[in-house]
Amino acid sequence: DDGWVRMTIELHLPVELADVPRIGTEWVLPGGLSRVEWFGDGPHECYPDRRSSAIVGRHAASVDDMYEDYVVPQEHGHRTGVRWLALGPAGRRAGQPSLLVMADPAVGDGTLGMAVRRHRDADLWAGTHTDDLVDPGGGAPSTFLYLDAAQRGLGTGSCGPDTLERYRIRPGTHSVGVWFRSFEAGADDPAALARSIRSR
To answer: What is the pTM of this model?
Structure first.
């Protein structure tokens, strides 16, 4: 009745697929959701083995500004330790529909990994140069939200040491638990709405 929806997804990783790059969910959202605000690690991209470089706080950026222009398209823009995130249109005029996603405090450590991009993981894997990245919406841009139960640390051993064992994804059951709801950007404070779930 209060507009919140709770969702928990269990993902089972078999032994033969251990040490994958990430395990989580992909959400396809309207491209008009082009501004992201979050409470967690930031403001720059952050991975499990690089968290000491981040500041825990309330951060904001446009989806386009979260893009990292690497020479070869690849995973980028991840943030760790996210308690909540809000996606809305550019600007903060009252009455604009927005989406609030909050990590379920009852699942895992009560935080998520998060990335918000204009391209799917599959597009990044398929591209060999940045000009290979085309608009996946065919003219109508989309916003892709990744909510991760686990993300592998950086490093592959191709040009340096591989990722330490403790930052690799082990087989077993991994869970993504969130509460989400719509809200009005500029009228509602996402932090206050998130606190209403945390206080339950």
So the answer is: 0.88
